[in-house]
Amino acid sequence: MIAWAGYRGVEFSPMHLSPDDPSAAQDAVQRAAALGLEPVAIECAGNLFDEAARGRLIRFFELAARLRIQTVTSGSGGLATAEGLDAFLPIASELASRADTLGIRWAVKAHVGAAVHGTKDLLRLLVGVPSPALVVNFDPTHLQRQGEVPAESARRLADRIGHVHIRDYDSADEKIGPPEGQIAGRGRVDLPAVLSVLRAGGYQGFLDLEIIGAQGWDPVRQMGIIAESRGYLRRVLQEIDGRAG
Protein backbone atom coordinates (compact mmCIF):
# COMPACT_ATOMS: atom_id res chain seq x y z
CA MET A 1 0.00 0.00 0.00
CA ILE A 2 2.72 2.51 0.98
CA ALA A 3 4.86 1.78 -2.05
CA TRP A 4 1.86 1.76 -4.40
CA ALA A 5 0.88 5.24 -3.20
CA GLY A 6 4.27 6.49 -4.34
CA TYR A 7 6.28 6.74 -1.14
CA ARG A 8 10.02 6.00 -1.24
CA GLY A 9 10.75 5.26 2.40
CA VAL A 10 9.28 3.89 5.60
CA GLU A 11 9.74 4.52 9.31
CA PHE A 12 9.23 1.37 11.36
CA SER A 13 7.68 1.22 14.81
CA PRO A 14 7.98 -1.41 17.57
CA MET A 15 4.82 -2.91 16.06
CA HIS A 16 6.95 -3.88 13.05
CA LEU A 17 10.43 -4.52 14.47
CA SER A 18 11.59 -5.96 17.77
CA PRO A 19 15.08 -6.24 19.26
CA ASP A 20 13.90 -9.59 20.65
CA ASP A 21 13.65 -11.02 17.13
CA PRO A 22 16.40 -9.52 14.97
CA SER A 23 15.87 -12.15 12.28
CA ALA A 24 12.24 -11.11 11.79
CA ALA A 25 13.30 -7.47 11.86
CA GLN A 26 15.84 -8.11 9.12
CA ASP A 27 13.15 -9.87 7.08
CA ALA A 28 10.80 -6.87 7.44
CA VAL A 29 13.52 -4.50 6.24
CA GLN A 30 14.30 -6.73 3.27
CA ARG A 31 10.62 -6.98 2.31
CA ALA A 32 10.33 -3.19 2.43
CA ALA A 33 13.46 -2.84 0.29
CA ALA A 34 12.04 -5.29 -2.24
CA LEU A 35 9.10 -2.90 -2.65
CA GLY A 36 11.45 0.03 -3.23
CA LEU A 37 11.00 1.45 0.28
CA GLU A 38 14.14 2.72 1.98
CA PRO A 39 14.23 1.93 5.73
CA VAL A 40 14.47 5.53 6.98
CA ALA A 41 14.04 5.28 10.75
CA ILE A 42 12.66 3.39 13.72
CA GLU A 43 10.34 5.16 16.17
CA CYS A 44 10.60 4.18 19.82
CA ALA A 45 8.23 6.25 21.93
CA GLY A 46 8.39 6.16 25.71
CA ASN A 47 9.03 8.11 28.90
CA LEU A 48 12.81 8.30 29.03
CA PHE A 49 12.78 9.29 32.68
CA ASP A 50 11.98 5.62 33.26
CA GLU A 51 15.04 3.35 33.34
CA ALA A 52 13.26 0.52 31.54
CA ALA A 53 12.23 2.88 28.73
CA ARG A 54 15.83 4.06 28.36
CA GLY A 55 17.02 0.47 28.17
CA ARG A 56 14.42 -0.26 25.51
CA LEU A 57 15.53 2.75 23.46
CA ILE A 58 19.17 1.63 23.64
CA ARG A 59 18.16 -1.79 22.38
CA PHE A 60 16.48 -0.11 19.42
CA PHE A 61 19.67 1.90 18.86
CA GLU A 62 21.53 -1.42 18.66
CA LEU A 63 18.91 -2.91 16.34
CA ALA A 64 19.05 0.12 14.05
CA ALA A 65 22.83 -0.15 13.84
CA ARG A 66 22.57 -3.86 13.03
CA LEU A 67 19.96 -3.18 10.31
CA ARG A 68 21.89 -0.15 8.99
CA ILE A 69 18.98 2.17 9.67
CA GLN A 70 20.36 5.64 10.22
CA THR A 71 17.88 7.16 12.67
CA VAL A 72 15.91 6.26 15.80
CA THR A 73 13.21 8.73 16.82
CA SER A 74 11.65 9.43 20.21
CA GLY A 75 10.34 12.11 22.49
CA SER A 76 11.65 12.83 25.97
CA GLY A 77 8.78 11.94 28.23
CA GLY A 78 8.62 13.73 31.56
CA LEU A 79 6.77 16.93 32.41
CA ALA A 80 6.73 20.27 30.61
CA THR A 81 8.57 22.18 33.32
CA ALA A 82 11.98 23.84 33.60
CA GLU A 83 12.90 21.25 36.22
CA GLY A 84 11.86 18.47 33.87
CA LEU A 85 14.14 19.75 31.13
CA ASP A 86 17.02 20.19 33.59
CA ALA A 87 16.62 16.58 34.67
CA PHE A 88 16.47 15.36 31.08
CA LEU A 89 19.81 16.83 29.99
CA PRO A 90 22.05 14.21 31.70
CA ILE A 91 19.73 11.45 30.47
CA ALA A 92 19.97 12.79 26.93
CA SER A 93 23.75 13.10 27.17
CA GLU A 94 24.10 9.42 28.02
CA LEU A 95 21.70 8.32 25.29
CA ALA A 96 23.34 10.51 22.65
CA SER A 97 26.71 9.06 23.59
CA ARG A 98 25.36 5.53 23.06
CA ALA A 99 23.89 6.49 19.69
CA ASP A 100 27.19 8.09 18.65
CA THR A 101 29.14 4.98 19.62
CA LEU A 102 26.84 2.88 17.46
CA GLY A 103 27.12 5.23 14.49
CA ILE A 104 23.44 6.20 14.33
CA ARG A 105 21.42 9.35 14.94
CA TRP A 106 18.91 9.92 17.73
CA ALA A 107 16.17 12.32 16.57
CA VAL A 108 14.22 13.92 19.43
CA LYS A 109 10.77 15.42 18.94
CA ALA A 110 9.28 18.33 20.88
CA HIS A 111 6.05 16.79 22.20
CA VAL A 112 3.05 18.46 23.81
CA GLY A 113 3.23 17.99 27.60
CA ALA A 114 6.76 16.53 27.70
CA ALA A 115 9.98 17.88 29.19
CA VAL A 116 11.10 18.74 25.66
CA HIS A 117 7.92 20.34 24.36
CA GLY A 118 8.85 23.47 22.40
CA THR A 119 11.47 25.15 20.26
CA LYS A 120 13.27 26.71 23.21
CA ASP A 121 13.55 23.29 24.83
CA LEU A 122 15.03 21.77 21.69
CA LEU A 123 17.54 24.60 21.42
CA ARG A 124 18.58 24.18 25.04
CA LEU A 125 18.84 20.42 24.57
CA LEU A 126 21.12 20.87 21.56
CA VAL A 127 23.36 23.28 23.48
CA GLY A 128 23.38 21.13 26.60
CA VAL A 129 24.13 17.92 24.71
CA PRO A 130 26.62 18.89 21.97
CA SER A 131 26.70 15.49 20.30
CA PRO A 132 26.59 15.04 16.50
CA ALA A 133 24.40 12.00 17.10
CA LEU A 134 21.60 14.16 18.56
CA VAL A 135 19.33 15.78 15.96
CA VAL A 136 15.82 17.23 15.88
CA ASN A 137 12.80 15.27 14.74
CA PHE A 138 10.73 18.23 13.54
CA ASP A 139 6.94 17.89 13.95
CA PRO A 140 5.09 21.16 13.26
CA THR A 141 1.81 19.99 14.79
CA HIS A 142 3.24 19.64 18.29
CA LEU A 143 4.65 23.17 18.07
CA GLN A 144 1.59 24.88 16.61
CA ARG A 145 -0.74 23.24 19.10
CA GLN A 146 1.20 25.09 21.80
CA GLY A 147 0.93 28.48 20.12
CA GLU A 148 4.20 28.48 18.16
CA VAL A 149 4.63 29.29 14.47
CA PRO A 150 6.15 26.14 12.93
CA ALA A 151 7.87 27.90 10.04
CA GLU A 152 9.68 30.20 12.47
CA SER A 153 10.64 27.20 14.61
CA ALA A 154 12.05 25.51 11.50
CA ARG A 155 14.19 28.59 10.80
CA ARG A 156 15.64 28.53 14.31
CA LEU A 157 16.33 24.80 14.23
CA ALA A 158 17.27 24.43 10.56
CA ASP A 159 20.87 23.28 10.87
CA ARG A 160 20.00 20.53 13.36
CA ILE A 161 16.83 19.08 11.81
CA GLY A 162 17.65 15.49 10.94
CA HIS A 163 14.17 14.02 10.51
CA VAL A 164 10.65 15.34 9.87
CA HIS A 165 7.27 13.99 10.95
CA ILE A 166 4.63 15.60 8.78
CA ARG A 167 0.86 15.74 9.12
CA ASP A 168 -1.84 18.34 9.72
CA TYR A 169 -4.38 18.89 12.48
CA ASP A 170 -7.79 20.53 12.68
CA SER A 171 -8.76 20.54 16.35
CA ALA A 172 -9.34 23.71 18.36
CA ASP A 173 -7.26 22.54 21.33
CA GLU A 174 -3.99 20.70 21.94
CA LYS A 175 -5.44 17.34 20.88
CA ILE A 176 -4.31 16.06 17.50
CA GLY A 177 -7.86 15.17 16.49
CA PRO A 178 -9.22 12.43 14.19
CA PRO A 179 -7.27 11.04 11.23
CA GLU A 180 -9.24 13.01 8.64
CA GLY A 181 -7.95 16.28 10.08
CA GLN A 182 -4.38 14.99 9.99
CA ILE A 183 -4.39 14.61 6.20
CA ALA A 184 -1.80 17.02 4.83
CA GLY A 185 -3.51 20.16 3.54
CA ARG A 186 -6.80 19.73 5.38
CA GLY A 187 -5.89 21.36 8.67
CA ARG A 188 -4.49 24.44 10.38
CA VAL A 189 -0.75 24.09 9.77
CA ASP A 190 0.80 26.28 7.09
CA LEU A 191 2.63 23.36 5.55
CA PRO A 192 3.75 25.31 2.44
CA ALA A 193 5.54 27.80 4.73
CA VAL A 194 7.14 24.98 6.74
CA LEU A 195 8.30 23.11 3.66
CA SER A 196 9.64 26.30 2.10
CA VAL A 197 11.77 26.98 5.19
CA LEU A 198 13.01 23.38 5.27
CA ARG A 199 14.00 23.62 1.60
CA ALA A 200 15.76 26.94 2.12
CA GLY A 201 17.54 25.56 5.18
CA GLY A 202 19.02 22.71 3.17
CA TYR A 203 16.96 19.83 4.56
CA GLN A 204 17.20 16.94 2.10
CA GLY A 205 15.81 14.10 4.17
CA PHE A 206 12.46 12.37 4.08
CA LEU A 207 9.09 13.85 4.98
CA ASP A 208 7.68 11.08 7.14
CA LEU A 209 3.88 11.06 7.12
CA GLU A 210 2.62 10.23 10.62
CA ILE A 211 -1.12 9.68 11.06
CA ILE A 212 -2.46 8.75 14.51
CA GLY A 213 -5.66 6.74 15.00
CA ALA A 214 -6.22 5.09 11.61
CA GLN A 215 -4.60 1.71 12.34
CA GLY A 216 -7.99 -0.03 12.59
CA TRP A 217 -9.46 1.56 9.50
CA ASP A 218 -10.38 -0.25 6.32
CA PRO A 219 -7.37 -0.35 3.96
CA VAL A 220 -9.27 1.66 1.35
CA ARG A 221 -9.69 4.55 3.82
CA GLN A 222 -6.06 4.25 4.88
CA MET A 223 -5.01 4.44 1.24
CA GLY A 224 -7.09 7.58 0.86
CA ILE A 225 -5.19 9.26 3.69
CA ILE A 226 -1.73 8.43 2.49
CA ALA A 227 -2.44 9.06 -1.20
CA GLU A 228 -4.12 12.42 -0.63
CA SER A 229 -1.36 13.53 1.73
CA ARG A 230 1.39 12.58 -0.71
CA GLY A 231 -0.36 14.28 -3.59
CA TYR A 232 -0.72 17.50 -1.61
CA LEU A 233 2.87 17.50 -0.34
CA ARG A 234 4.25 16.70 -3.79
CA ARG A 235 2.34 19.60 -5.34
CA VAL A 236 3.55 22.01 -2.62
CA LEU A 237 7.17 20.96 -3.13
CA GLN A 238 6.84 21.35 -6.91
CA GLU A 239 5.48 24.88 -6.42
CA ILE A 240 8.33 25.74 -4.02
CA ASP A 241 10.93 24.41 -6.46
CA GLY A 242 9.25 26.30 -9.28
CA ARG A 243 9.43 29.56 -7.34
CA ALA A 244 13.05 28.83 -6.46
CA GLY A 245 13.84 28.28 -10.13
* Total beta-strand segments: 7
H-E string: EHEHEHEHEHHEHHEH
List the uncertain runs: none
Helix percentage: 40-55%
Compute the gyration radius: what is it? Answer: 17 Å
Level-1 CATH class name: Alpha Beta
Helical segment count: 9
Overall mean pLDDT stands at 95
Q: Might you state the CATH topology name?
A: TIM Barrel
Q: What number of domains? A: 1
Structural class: alpha/beta
Distance between the termini: 33 Å
Identify the strand order in the major beta sheet: 1-2-3-4-5-6-7
Main sheet overview: 7 strands, parallel
Q: Give the CATH H-level superfamily.
A: Divalent-metal-dependent TIM barrel enzymes
| Overall morphology | globular
Explain the overall architecture:
This protein has 245 residues and is α/β, with parallel strands linked by helices. The protein has one domain (9-244): TIM Barrel, CATH 3.20.20. Helix content is 47%, strand content 13%. The chain is built from nine helices and seven strands, in the order E-H-E-H-E-H-E-H-E-H-H-E-H-H-E-H. The chain has helices at 22-34, 51-67, 82-102, 119-128, 140-144, 150-157, 179-182, 191-200, 219-244, and strands at 9-12, 38-43, 71-74, 105-109, 134-138, 161-166, 207-209. The chain is globular and about 40 Å long.
